[in-house]
Amino acid sequence: MRPSRAKPPRKAVVLAAGFATRLRPLSYSTPKPLLPVWNKPVLGHTLERLESWGVREVLINLHYRADDVMAYLRNNRWKLRITLSFEPEILGTAGALRAAEWFLDDDAFWMINADILFELNASPLIRSHAEYAPIATLWMHDALGPRTVDMGSDGTILSFASRRPRAEGTYTFCGLHLLEPRILDFINETGADSIISAYERAQAKNRLVRGVSIQKSYWRDIGSIPAYLEAHRSTLTAFRQHTPGGAYVSSAILCTRRRLSRDGVTIRGATCVHPDVTIRSGARLKDAVISAGNRIGPNADLHDCVVDPSSPTVNRSATGFLSGLEIYPSDHPVRACADQLGFDRERAGVECLGTRGSERTIYRLSQSTDSIIVVRFDPARIENTLFTRAAAFLNKSGLRVPRILHDAPERGYYACEDLGRRDLNDSRLSDRNRKLLYTEVLTALERIHHPQALAAAMKTLPLAPPFSPDLYAWEHELFIREFLVPFLKADASTVRRIRRVLEAGSRRLADEPAVLLHRDLQSSNIMIHRTQAYLIDFQGMRGGPASYDLASLIYDPYAVLSLPQRVRILEASAAAGSANLSYAAIQRLCQACGAYGRLSQYPGGDRYLQYLEPARRNLRIAIADQAGFDSLQQISRHSWNIPRG
Asked: Do residue 344 and residue 438 come from a single domain?
């Protein structure tokens, strides 16, 4: 087969067969290719973009909810000649090409994932492909995403699994390929197969696979609900700034927003409302996607929210993904809890609050004024199985924690009391009430840290492994690997100096007597319910230094307390005299920065970057009076210019 000339490919393959598991529960009701982005399915945007590039024939592979995709394509007129390839069993990104061999000819063709948004000039890819005659030319991004691809200075892809992800010179593959049909020679003849594996086989036979990074371009993966919302924010920004990505937004959408504003609806941020929606005056919407057929009441206050057409009328504060109960599979925990606790399947609504650390997904199941929290978790993460038993222990000890309403550890879920939406970082709290709540938390800490509490817990609970030199070292490496090097570009000498000072601080902590720790005692894990403070997220309880919990509270990685607030807390704390408090704060804040850095690399994880500034400011405060921390003081002194998607 001959290499392609420098001409636009006339054929494309769109990969649309996946289950979209990362998009659940949104994908329970809407297949990934039909997710509306500014009221048009992403598949429609993709087909229009391919057509503008000169593509005339498209093959789309289908599996999950194929009937829905076929109905969309039938009900819309396309200039493209569209062919559908149904896969009774998922074949993978390379297997899909093997099944489409009949569709291909001797010329190069595009292949693209159905879950990305993109706007770019394709000419650099086409020219590079013609000049170097590789078996594949891939679109790369040098700033966004996980950046796990190593690429040489000449564009040759060296590895798809970099040993130094997010380091200088690494790239993210954006899901757009320009391929030669001879790639078929490297695809397995049967079963599912990955296109990346096919590329690696081709490279082993000295076939060239190249990457091209295009500066003036737009790319987003919408493979998760937070990423889906972020895509609306970034495309609206691009529209207003006349930069790539703005083509996804139409002026008609902005007219709908202005009409709703005139009708008394507050519209802020990247809110997209379908014209076929009933919204009462007084509703407040920020960064929300409201689908056709929804009903929004006057008391609704929706932010960072996607509302499914199956949702009951929304007339309250909400975030995450809102839907009816019926879209969930019959064996899903929210369905099981609804039946167990007497919720009406037809009237109940579900608010998916998203995935948290330790592979936990949180749901709010509600009906009328009643609501509960359902937590689905991975039982393989041992700490997840400890929450309900720890709650029973803490409740028996007289501490305020959520009541457990249903527990199914063998099936990986539990239901507990809904403590509401306000936590200790609520900006609406008065100084007096905030002081009272912190006093309650400190009283709770005294009980948790009581010398006999650790022994009692060890007899009752299978606690998480205690703090140890190995655990401190793990937190140090998390900070260095996930934040210090990729975000602050620290060189090897700086890393060595910071590792030494962190090790010195952790030795001080290791000498402190061990007590029972909450482990994650920041403001976001202290809920305000009926004017009182309740503890949550204590599944990581373990033995360790009391100063670690106190530092988590005072040097909160999610918020910066004022000096008077810190002083009042310290005055009221029995542990405030600990000489190790600053060391514990440094340890905790470095761990938090590492966690934020890691979480920010997942689709939609950009939201964690907003917490780096309070962490930086608290880190600077914590080390201000400590000798020997010059290297950390230096990196915390100036603002961290963290890239935002």
From this structure: no
